[in-house]
C-alpha cells in the first residue's frame, strides 16, 4: 500500500516501503524457528558483526517472559533503546503472521525514536515448523533449526523450512554428540528448497555467524536504492 | 451502508491486536477468581456491566459524531488504572491501522494524526464503525461483545478450558449484551444534548487493581 508519502499524513500502513516523512524505511528481517534453535544467539552474533557498519535495532517476541530481550540487554549487543520486546498473548505465530499490529508498532517506534535505521531484526517466539512471518511485517525471513532437534526436520519440510529466504541449520558443533547426519540434512534441505540458500553454522566455531552476516549485507544492498 | 461490515469489524480475527490481551482474565485466573466456566461467566458479566457498558457508550457516541477528543478525555476519566489507559491506547492505535486499511476515511486519518500513540480503543472503534458506514447501535454491540469475547478466549488458553464451555458462556450472556447495548445507545444519544457527562461511568475496582498488579508481573502470557 502506498497511501502516505507526505510528512503531514499519519503513520504508514504495514508494508509501505517509505516512512510518513517520505524517507525509505529500514529493511526488516524476521528470524523464526523452533524453541531453542539459536534465534537469539544468531541475533546477538549478527548485532556484534554488523553494528559498526549499520544502524541496527531488534524486536523480540517472547512467549511469556522478556528473556530474549533481557539476554540481548545483558550481553550489551546494542544500546537498550534499540531493543524492544513485544508481548504475544500465548500465540507467537499470530503476532508475526495473522495480526502483526503490535510488531509493526514496535518497528515504527524504533525508527521514530532511535532512527534513522538501516536494519531491524525481528525475532519470533520459538514456535512450530509452520510459523512464518507476514510479508506485511518483514521483507525477508530466516528460519533457524538446529542439528539437535533431529536430523529429519529438513526432510519433513513445512512452510518455514521450504519457503524462508534463508534456512540456518545451527549448532553443527553438536552433530557428533546427537548423532545427526549433516550431509543428509544439507541434501534434504536442498531438495526441499531448490535454489533458496541454506547455511550450516556453529556459533561456537570461529566462523560463527559470518555467512549469515554476508547474506544480510546482500539483502541490504538489494533493498537500498 | 453495509450491515455485513459489522461482521468484519467484530470478527475475533480482525487484525487489531486484541489477541495479546486478556481483558483482565489473566490476573483473575492467577488470583483464583476465574477457575472454570461458571466463574468465567460471572467475571464476564461483571466486565460487561462496567467496562463493557462504558466502552459501548463511548463507541456509540463516536458514531453519532461527538468530538473524539472529548470522548478520549471522558475515557481517561473513567479509567483510573494507568496500566489500563496504556493498554486502551495501544489497542486504539492498533485498531486504527486495521481500520484505515479496511475503510479509508479522512476522519480516521485526522484522528491518527491527532493521536499518533493511540486514542482509547472504543473511540477508535466508533469512528471505524462510522467509516464503515455502520450505525451507533452496531458500534455499541461491537464494543459490548469485545468486552466479554476477549476474556473468554484468553481463559481457553490460560486454563485449557473446554472451548465449547467458553462459547456457551458467551451465548448465555447474549440477552444481557442486548440490554447493555440498548443502555449504551440511549446514553450516547443524550451526550449530543447534555455533553459527555451523560456517559455511564460504571467502574470495576478489581479490574483496575488487577490490571495494575498484572502490569508489574515479570512473567505473563498476555499484555493486559
Ligand atoms: N553448541 C551450540 N549451542 C548453541 C549454538 N547456538 C546457540 N546455542 C545455545 O542454544 C541455546 C538456545 O539458544 P537461543 O539463541 O536462546 O535459542 P532461541 O531459538 O532464541 O530460543 P527461544 O527464543 O527460546 O525459542 C543457548 O544455550 C545457546 O547458547 C551453537 O551454534 N552451538
Ligand atoms: Mg530466543
UniProtKB/TrEMBL annotation, chain A:
Which Gene3D superfamilies does the record associate with it?
P-loop containing nucleotide triphosphate hydrolases
What's one GO BP annotation on this UniProt entry? urea catabolic process
Keywords annotated in UniProt: Chaperone, Cytoplasm, GTP-binding, Nickel insertion, Nucleotide-binding
Q: Where is the CobW/HypB/UreG nucleotide-binding domain?
A: 29-199
Region feature (Disordered):
1-20
| InterPro entries documented for this protein | CobW/HypB/UreG_nucleotide-bd, P-loop_NTPase, UreG
In its keyword annotation, does this UniProt entry include Chaperone?
yes
Say yes or no: keyword Ion transport present: no
Q: Name one GO molecular function term.
A: GTP binding
* Location(s), subcellular: Cytoplasm
Q: Where are the transmembrane segments?
A: none
Binding residues for GTP: 33-40
A GO CC annotation recorded here is:
cytoplasm
The text of the family note is:
Belongs to the SIMIBI class G3E GTPase family. UreG subfamily.
Record note on quaternary structure: Homodimer. UreD, UreF and UreG form a complex that acts as a GTP-hydrolysis-dependent molecular chaperone, activating the urease apoprotein by helping to assemble the nickel containing metallocenter of UreC. The UreE protein probably delivers the nickel.
Function comment: Facilitates the functional incorporation of the urease nickel metallocenter. This process requires GTP hydrolysis, probably effectuated by UreG.
Q: Which HAMAP family match?
A: UreG (MF_01389)
Give the protein's recorded name. Answer: Urease accessory protein UreG
**UniProt source species:** Streptomyces canus
Q: What is the lineage of its organism?
A: Bacteria, Bacillati, Actinomycetota, Actinomycetes, Kitasatosporales
UniProt lists the gene as: ureG
TrEMBL record, chain B:
| Primary localization | cytoplasm
Q: What Gene Ontology cellular component terms go with this record? A: cytoplasm
Keyword terms, alphabetized: Chaperone, Cytoplasm, Nickel insertion
InterPro entries xref list: UreF, UreF_sf
From the Swiss-Prot or TrEMBL record, state where the protein is found. Answer: Cytoplasm
Could you state a single Gene Ontology molecular function term? nickel cation binding
Keyword Chaperone applies: yes
Q: Which domain of life is it from?
A: Bacteria
**What Pfam families does the annotation carry?**
UreF (PF01730)
For this chain, the family text in UniProt reads: Belongs to the UreF family.
The subunit field of the Swiss-Prot or TrEMBL record says: UreD, UreF and UreG form a complex that acts as a GTP-hydrolysis-dependent molecular chaperone, activating the urease apoprotein by helping to assemble the nickel containing metallocenter of UreC. The UreE protein probably delivers the nickel.
**Any idea what job this protein has?**
Required for maturation of urease via the functional incorporation of the urease nickel metallocenter.
- Please give the name of this protein: Urease accessory protein UreF
Species of origin reads: Streptomyces canus
Taxonomic lineage from the root: Bacteria, Bacillati, Actinomycetota, Actinomycetes, Kitasatosporales
Gene that this polypeptide is encoded by = ureF
Amino acid at each position: 500500500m502506498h497511501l502516505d508519502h507526505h510528512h503531514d499524513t499519519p503513520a504508514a500502513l504495514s508494508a509501505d516501503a517509505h516512512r510518513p516523512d517520505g524517507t525509505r524505511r529500514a529493511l526488516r528481517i524476521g528470524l523464526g524457528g523452533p524453541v531453542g534453535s539459536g534465534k537469539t544467539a544468531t541475533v546477538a552474533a549478527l548485532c556484534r558483526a554488523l553494528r559498526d557498519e549499520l544502524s541496527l535495532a531488534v524486536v523480540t517476541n517472547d512467549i511469556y517472559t522478556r528473556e530474549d530481550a533481557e539476554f540481548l540487554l545483558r550481553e550489551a549487543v546494542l544500546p537498550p533503546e534499540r531493543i524492544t520486546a513485544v508481548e504475544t498473548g500465548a500465540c507467537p505465530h499470530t503476532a508475526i503472521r495473522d495480526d502483526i499490529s503490535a510488531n509493526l508498532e514496535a518497528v515504527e517506534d524504533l525508527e521514530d525514536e532511535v532512527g534513522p535505521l538501516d536494519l531491524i531484526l525481528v525475532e519470533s517466539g520459538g514456535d512450530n515448523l509452520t510459523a512464518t512471518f507476514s510479508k506485511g511485517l518483514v521483507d525477508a525471513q530466516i528460519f533457524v533449526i538446529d542439528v539437535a532437534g533431529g536430523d529429519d526436520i529438513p526432510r519433513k519440510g513445512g512452510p518455514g523450512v521450504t519457503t524462508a529466504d534463508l534456512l540456518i541449520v545451527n549448532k553443527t558443533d553438536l552433530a557428533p554428540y546427537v548423532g545427526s547426519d549433516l550431509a543428509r540434512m544439507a541434501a534434504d534441505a536442498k531438495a526441499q528448497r531448490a535454489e533458496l540458500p541454506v547455511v550450516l553454522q556453529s556459533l561456537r566455531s570461529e566462523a560463527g555467524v559470518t555467512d549469515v552476516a554476508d547474506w544480510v549485507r546482500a539483502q541490504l544492498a538489494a533493498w537500498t536504492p | 451502508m453495509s450491515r455485513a461490515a459489522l461482521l468484519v469489524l467484530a470478527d475475533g480475527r480482525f487484525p487489531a491486536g486484541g489477541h495479546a490481551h486478556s481483558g483482565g482474565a489473566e490476573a483473575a485466573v492467577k488470583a483464583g477468581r476465574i477457575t472454570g466456566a461458571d466463574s468465567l461467566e460471572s467475571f464476564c458479566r461483571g466486565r460487561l456491566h462496567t467496562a463493557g457498558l462504558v466502552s459501548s457508550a463511548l463507541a456509540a457516541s463516536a458514531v453519532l459524531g461527538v468530538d473524539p477528543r472529548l470522548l478520549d478525555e471522558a475515557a481517561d476519566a473513567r479509567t483510573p488504572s494507568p496500566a489500563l489507559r496504556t493498554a486502551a491506547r495501544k489497542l486504539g492505535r492498533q485498531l486504527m491501522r486495521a481500520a484505515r486499511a479496511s475503510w479509508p476515511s479522512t476522519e480516521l486519518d485526522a484522528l491518527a494524526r491527532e493521536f499518533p500513540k493511540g486514542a482509547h480503543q472504543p473511540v477508535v472503534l466508533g469512528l471505524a464503525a462510522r467509516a464503515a458506514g455502520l450505525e451507533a447501535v452496531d458500534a455499541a454491540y461491537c464494543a459490548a461483545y469485545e468486552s466479554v469475547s476477549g476474556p473468554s478466549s484468553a481463559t481457553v488458553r490460560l486454563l485449557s478450558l473446554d472451548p465449547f464451555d467458553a462459547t456457551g458462556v458467551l451465548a448465555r450472556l447474549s440477552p444481557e449484551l442486548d440490554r447493555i447495548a440498548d443502555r449504551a445507545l440511549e446514553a450516547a444519544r443524550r451526550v449530543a444534548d447534555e455533553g459527555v457527562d451523560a456517559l455511564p461511568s460504571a467502574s470495576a475496582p478489581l479490574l483496575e487493581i488487577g490490571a495494575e498488579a498484572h502490569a508489574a508481573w515479570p512473567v505473563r502470557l498476555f499484555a493486559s
